[in-house]
Amino acid sequence: MEQERKEQSVQDKSIFALTWPIYIDHMLGYFVGFVDVFLLSQISDHASAAVGAVNVIVLFVIMLLGALGIGGGVIYSQYLGANKQDAVRRLYASAFVLNMAVGIVTSLILVLLSDSLASWIGLNGVLHEYGKTYLAIVGGGTFFYAGTTFFWGIMSANGYTHYTMYVAVATNVINIIGVYALTFGYFGLPKLGIIGIALATVIARIVGFLYSWWLVRYKLKIQFIWAKDGFLTNTKVMIRTVFAITLEPVFWYGAQLVATAIIASIGPDELAARTYTVTVTSFVSLFCYSVSQGTQILISHLVGAMRTDQVKRQFRQSLLIGTGVPIIMLTLIYAMSESIIGVFTKNQDIIAISTMLLLLAFVNEPGSGFNQVTGSALRAAGHVNYPTVIGGIFMWGMFIPMAYILAIPLGLGVVGVFISMAFDELVRGLLLYRKWSHVIRSPLQLKLESTLAH
Fold first, then answer.
1. Where are the domains of the chain?
2. Mean pLDDT throughout 379-404?
3. 336-374: pLDDT as tens digits
């Protein structure tokens, strides 16, 4: 009865109740990066540049591990919505083994290949030493992040997104204290420089892992069922779902790297304008992502419970919020665009380009919200492959070629890349919406039964 009341509360939660902790959680994640970069700049520009370069690899791994947690959360929510309590506890056990195995492999790769990876991204001399050292230490700690994302999936699926926010707050506090203490030798600790920053990051991740485990085990009182029966079946379900969900951000991340390379080939002003615009609009992008994740949790539960009418209403509400609020946020940003960009640079050419890019964001960001919310709804209904396939085809088959043509042969520069980006978001969003229209008219139970293991 207690579990049924908890399940009922998850299904009846508002999208705002689930979304705002996710938003704060990821905002704090950005803040950690800001603190590290700021303190690295106090050591030397070489240290900052080296860590910035290898962080591309670290962030890529973190993105993959995050997708692993999201994939698990989708399936847990469907099980919980269908009130399959014993089944979901067995799934937790399978997912834990899978996450830990992936975490161990990624940690070993980053540690053992840190030297080669630092060379591969073009670091030499002292930059190579800085990058290799940071990558080996932080990379070794990704094992704990894999565990944290696993527990994050459980907490989110059970409707406790505010608990994940608590973990983020604790991790940030430990990281900031650790970075200052170990980098500059406060509290009687040795002055370790870049090694101190890396160690503080790992310590913070260990704390995040242990705190997440404590919340799941003792606060939510969730226990796993360790049984051979159905273990392989559940693991296969996890791998199939997670693989599809993980591929989409891989496609996106790769496309963004290529797009950035195109912009960099045009000139430093265009690259700077792109950097400042993305930094300013990251608050809007993060909002769109948070709404999509909250939508995914809610609709997964409702699909599991076969509450089709509520699924339809929730999707419409999320779509309105995910496209409408970004427009309001962008209006405020654009009204103060020159002042905001002026915080980063006094170069009038860069300010002018950035202002134009912010104008294009009125299409790009709501389009991204439309795309993300619809894709999350499809994944929540068990259609995990379609958004990934569409994403791979259009990001690489349309966005990148179009960005190159508009930017270089047609001479539109970074503006051409952003036009292509906005067009890509809209086209993919419309295709996903068309798919959703077909899905919502068909019995959700048929897809659910093919997703859940018995």
1. 1-227, 248-454
2. 91
3. 888 888 877 788 888 888 899 999 999 999 999 999 999
